[in-house]
Specification:
There is one protein chain. This protein is of the alpha/beta class. The protein folds into two domains: 68 residues, no CATH class; 113 residues, Zincin-like, CATH 3.30.2010. 39% of the residues lie in helices and 21% in strands. It is built from six helices and seven strands, in the order ββββααβββαααα. The protein has a four-stranded mixed β-sheet, with helices on one face. Strands 5-7-6 form a three-stranded mixed β-sheet. The mean pLDDT is 93. It binds zinc ion. The site of zinc ion has 4 residues, from loops.
């Protein structure tokens, strides 16, 4: 019986694809610990992919196309979110969970927070300025809502006291969202407390 020859991909390779005017880099690495599934993460403009040893070039190419397609959709969704949307989101959360009792000055997306996901200033000339890292724009909605709820809740409790956590828990997906953030921090070797 003749065996059909299947080409296998190199252990490590990089590829560039476009997303509008932006160039995305796909970095693919073989990972012998993986049995069948492929894993990927998006860091800024780089898609890091790990693939199992026993995969054909054709199959890997097909999976990479799916991933690139998903990343393009995520990025398109992220681009649509602006500061007005964020303000509306904050108002909706304030009304729904905090009886509209919280007040803030501005809430906006920022691109210069390297580590933190959100911040809220207390006192001084920037009192009540809430900043949300645009790194989270493509994260699930329930996580974005949690981060907004967390920073809003700091308007009442500018600390991480027991009273603060009881208050922020009015947002019903708090535990799930904190689990998501713990997972991100773990993957990055970071401390979740340093993120938010
Ligand atoms: Zn906090």
């Amino acid at each position: 019986m003749k065996k059909r020859l299947q080409t296998t991909p190199p252990d490590k390779f990089a590829r560039q694809v476009s997303d509008g005017a932006v160039t995305l880099t796909v970095e693919a690495t073989k990972d012998n610990r993986l049995r069948k599934s492929i894993r990927w993460t998006l860091k800024q403009e780089t898609i890091q992919v790990r693939f199992p040893a026993h995969i054909s070039t054709a199959e890997l190419d097909r999976l990479l196309e799916d991933i690139i397609d998903r990343v393009r959709k995520q990025r398109a969704r992220a681009r649509q979110q602006n500061d007005d949307d964020l303000e509306q989101r904050a108002q909706a959360i304030n009304t729904r969970y905090f009886q509209s009792e919280l007040q803030w000055h501005t809430i906006r997306w920022v691109g210069n927070m390297k580590r933190r996901l959100g911040s809220c200033t207390e006192g001084g000339t920037t009192d009540g300025d809430i900043r949300i890292s645009d790194r989270i724009k493509h994260w699930p909605d329930y996580v974005i809502d949690y981060i907004v709820a967390h920073e809003l809740a700091h308007r009442k409790y500018p600390n991480h006291s027991r009273a603060f956590w009881d208050y922020v828990a009015r947002y019903p997906h708090t535990e799930r969202a904190r689990g998501f953030i713990d997972g991100i921090a773990f993957a990055e070797g970071d401390d979740p407390e340093a993120l938010i």
